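pinned: reference chain
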Amino acid sequence: MQIIPPGASYKKLAKKSDTEIDIASNVFYPPGITLQPGQFIVRLYTGEDLPQMDSAALANIKNLFSSGEKPQDLVDPFVELEFAGSKITSSTQYGTFDPVWGQKLVVHGQFPSMAEKFVIRVKDSDEIGGDDLIATKLLKMSQISFSSTDSDLGFQPTFGPSYIPMYGGLREFSEVSGKYEDLNKGDEPGIAYRGRILMELNSHMGEADPAQKNKANIPQNESDDVMSNLRRHKYHLFTAFDTGNMIRKKKKVPTATLR
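pinned: its structure tokens
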């Protein structure tokens, strides 16, 4: 909404994704509401199955400016967390489809908040041309918390530790932006799996502990406890094609194949 004087013309605003518009930090609260500080404490453990985000040629250019071992996988992932205008980013893990962060991140806020969505963005770090968005996940406060007048029933926002699957545009790498790239912003349901991250979220109401850092490494024994409880099972996926009809015939393709 724009408020303009009589006779003035409005300015065309740039279209932004719903996850990019900071509504919560610009809310007018009615008199009598007292806000109190609070923190979301996120433990970010690992990621898996992230897609390729860089071309081989760009990877070679990156290697010229990097030191140490040559990265093998064509993605440099990091995670960006945002709630009600407060934002924090994790460390970047270079050259890996399966990053291990092992970080504790603190997101500060004011409560009660009008914000409903805790935004999780997985990005590919790019010093050349800017960071690329891999996928976005929205955690709704109404799904991970419960308000009740009975203190024994209500609970503050809590989640995990659990894997969060990320969905967005096609996994196949392309140097040209495709028509499905906007699905990585999380505004609409994704059409392809783009990896998953293992994380945990807890909340704390009140002033933050002065000794608590916004970024810190998770102690190895805590990570080991979480990872030891993860169960993995091998499985086979069987698909059968029964019948097909109304398939348009093409002259150059005499037979139809199902893949």
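why pinned: The longest strand covers residues 192-205. The two ends are 48 Å apart (CA to CA).
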